[in-house]
Design brief:
The structure is a single chain. This protein is of the alpha+beta class. The protein folds into 2 domains: 2-120, Glutathione S-transferase Yfyf (Class Pi), Chain A, domain 2, CATH 1.20.1050.10; 232-404, Nucleic acid-binding proteins (OB fold (Dihydrolipoamide Acetyltransferase, E2P)). The protein has helices at residues 11-18, 30-45, 51-61, 74-87, 92-96, 99-109, 112-120, 148-176, 181-214, 341-344, 358-362; strands at residues 237-247, 255-260, 268-272, 287-291, 297-299, 302-304, 307-308, 310-312, 321-323, 335-338, 366-368, 374-377, 384-389, 392-393, 403-404. A hairpin with a 5-residue loop joins strand 11 and strand 12. Helix 2 (30-45) runs parallel beside helix 4 (74-87) and helix 4 (74-87) crosses helix 6 (99-109). It is elongated, with a radius of gyration of 31 Å. Mean pLDDT is 82; it is low at 149-165, 168-193 and 198-223.
Length: 405
């Protein structure tokens, strides 16, 4: 990309070393490519790291993981490199005052390709250490109560006042100039009654048709896709790749991950309660198995669009939790399925209905075998159905007899 040549050394070398020209790091579509180029040109011009611009940058990054779209690009490398001289000098109170910018800087500097390129240019872009454990809690003010209900409640009062005024006016006119009111009201009543009868006929017609269909007049509606007993093949399992992970701003035990499941819409936001069991360093850049057809759920203010499949030791959480790992060579979006003729070709549901508790019914059969391979054991027949992709069987790193959830 021509914009990279406008950067000064060693920033130019940092970006070149952390990216591959022509790859998605320079944008996955024309719109993103243009935005990446604009960001790099702004960095080259020095405007984004001016003191007055940092406040705006902090505000921009509050809801974002990356500066362009929802994936890592060359623009992030350029911005990180430009910010490095500033952040290398900041003391805790100073970087605590700009939490979004600090979180962004720390995430980018720990990207594997950035770290490799930065280390090759040492000491220009040395790793900046942050004391985030002692950072003050961010106070989040509740949204002010909405006024819509008050306005709605106030509207009838206006109508009532207008109606009262009209009634007074009508009475006045009646006293001054008598008019044949009764016949007119009767006509209106008849017209309303006629409309009401027509409406009732229309409303009755579908009901009558429905009753005749039961007698054979029309075919019955198709059965729901989740009809029948819950089976594991109803669950949509896929290979995912964690492209970003951070601690939840409002919950000490939760991670917020961006996981690539090979979808055109980009990575999904996933919230998982693994902070106390798996270090964040072991979550970064990790390949895993995700449950992708659960109903999205709010987790302390952040909506989660999937669930990571983890193995919990048979001796309890404190004895260990591990991510289930797909076989070597897996790619984001690879289908994960259960061995067995009745399951291998079955199509998962588009979304699990929480009321039917399909996952909760099937989950007790999820376990890891003596080989540490992940499987579902049929509680009725005790038949074993390994969890796999076309490349091989998924497994836990060390746990045997673990529960999967």
């Amino acid at each position: 990309m021509s914009a990279v040549t406008k950067l000064q050394s060693p920033l130019k070398e940092l970006v070149a070393g952390a990216t591959h020209d022509g790859s998605s790091e320079f944008g996955r579509n024309e719109k993103d490519k243009k935005e990446v180029e604009e960001w790099i040109e702004r960095v080259a011009g020095g405007e984004v790291v001016k003191a007055e611009a940092l406040k705006d940058l902090e505000a921009q990054l509050v809801p974002k993981t990356y500066v362009v779209s929802n994936y890592f690009t060359a623009a992030d490398v350029a911005l990180y490199g430009a910010l490095h001289p500033i952040f290398a000098q900041l003391q805790p109170p100073q970087y605590y005052a700009q939490p979004a910018l600090t979180r962004y800087f720390d995430h980018i500097q720990n990207q594997p390709t950035v770290r490799k390129s930065a280390d090759a240019l040492a000491p220009a872009f040395s790793l900046v250490q942050f004391d985030l454990e002692n950072a003050p809690k961010i106070e989040r003010k509740a949204d002010p109560p909405k006024e819509k209900k008050k306005k709605a409640e106030g509207a009838p009062l206006v109508e009532k006042a207008a109606s009262s005024s009209n009634e007074k006016s009508a009475k006045k006119e009646k006293n001054e100039k008598p008019a044949p009111v009764a016949p007119a009201e009767g006509a209106v009543a008849e017209a309303k009654e006629g409309k009401s009868q027509k409406k009732e006929k229309k409303e009755k017609k579908p009901a009558e048709e429905g009753s005749s269909s039961k007698k054979g007049g029309k075919s019955a509606p198709a059965a729901a896709e989740d009809a029948g007993d819950p089976v594991p093949s109803m669950i949509d399992l896929r290979v995912g790749h964690i492209v970003d992970v951070m601690k939840h701003p409002d919950a000490d035990g939760l991670y917020v991950e961006q996981i690539d499941f090979g979808e055109e819409t980009g990575p999904r936001t996933v919230v998982s309660g693994l902070v106390h069991y798996i270090p964040i360093e072991d979550m970064r850049d990790k390949y895993l198995v995700g449950v992708c057809n659960l109903k999205p759920a709010n987790m302390r203010g952040i909506k989660s669009f999937a669930m990571v499949l983890a193995a919990t030791s048979k001796d309890g959480k404190d004895a260990g939790i591990e991510l289930i790992q797909p076989p070597a060579g897996s790619r984001p979006g690879d289908r994960v399925y259960f061995e067995g003729a009745e399951f291998e070709s079955a199509k998962p549901l588009s979304q699990l209905n929480p009321k039917k508790k399909i996952f909760e019914t099937v989950q007790p059969g999820f376990t890891t075998l003596e080989t540490k391979e992940a499987a579902w054991v049929n509680p009725a027949t005790k038949s074993v159905h390994k969890i796999r992709t076309d490349r091989g069987v998924c497994a836990a790193p060390t746990l045997v007899g673990a529960s999967l959830s």
